[in-house]
Amino acid sequence: MKAFVIEKYGDRSAVHAGEVPEPVVGAEDVLVRVDAASVNPLDFKIRDGAFKTVLPYRLPLVLGNDLAGTVVRVGPSVTRFAVGDEVYARPGKDRIGTFAERIAVHQDDLALKPAGLTTAEAASLPLVALTSWQALVEKARVRPGQKVLIHAGAGGVGTIAVQLAKELGAHVATTVSTAKVPLAKELGAEVVVDYRTQDFAEVLDGYDLVLDTLGGETLEKSLRVLRPGGRVISIAGPPDADFARELGLNPVLRQVMNVLSFRIRRRAKRHGVTYGFLFMKADGEQLREVARLVEAGRIRPVVDRVFPFAQTREAMEYAEQGRAKAGKVVVAMN
Fold this sequence. Notes:
The chain is of the alpha/beta class. It has twelve helices and 16 strands. Strands 3, 5, 6, 7, 8, 15 and 16 form a seven-stranded mixed sheet that branches. The chain has a six-stranded parallel sheet with strand order 11-10-9-12-13-14, with helices on both faces. The protein has a three-stranded antiparallel sheet with strand order 2-1-4, with no helix packed on it. The longest helix is centred in the middle third of the chain and has 14 residues, at about 125-140. It is globular.
């Protein structure tokens, strides 16, 4: 079958179209015809080899981390899905490869596609929706009335996280560029900081939670806007020992992660707040919760542009260069 693969870790030139074997379908697997898949920053990091120490993929590797598609076959122990079902998913971290015509996904990682969405809209959701859910609901347990800052509120994660935080009853602030201020307000942010003209660390204060999607200086400045006892959860900062434990890494790698995050954890402690790293995981039940919110009109996907499957490499370059105006970049088979 056709797929976009890498033979070795590298830059954009490492990605190419090729033929790969058909997926092996296990007893609890669902074989899905991929109708659309979305592009995520995680794709670039995997391609570059940024996670090869903790996620040792076997090369050649098919890229792609989420999808919407149609069930074409089910394993003998599958009970939740049938041939013809329209589904969406973020496959398990060890079984990625959605930039392909077909993929086998464990039934626990799969959910029915939200009714009323196009295939491209559904494909834009799994990874960013799970990231938002696991940060705001699972880790932070956001409660009504809490103050939550979400960076890059017009980005892939940001557009969903702003809506979810609002749905949870939080007072939501976000940072965006000038042109994206109207969208951020439309998505539900009460406070929108234009980072081109304002310094968020100078205008925000007393926040319970920061969801950091940018890392670097933004992460460090975020510590200053939290109340004592507040928390920053980052998907772009250095990984920590908790992340290593979640992956089941050996003690040596746990210590490495501890060292990588030592500086930001020390700074957080000085501010009387805490730092945590999030690497989202596949979860079909959480996707079912997201689907209910989508179908109730509480969350809507934001899609910037849809590329044909043959232009997957161009779609990745478009997203990596930051050319998307808002939301997600999607690759569609048809």
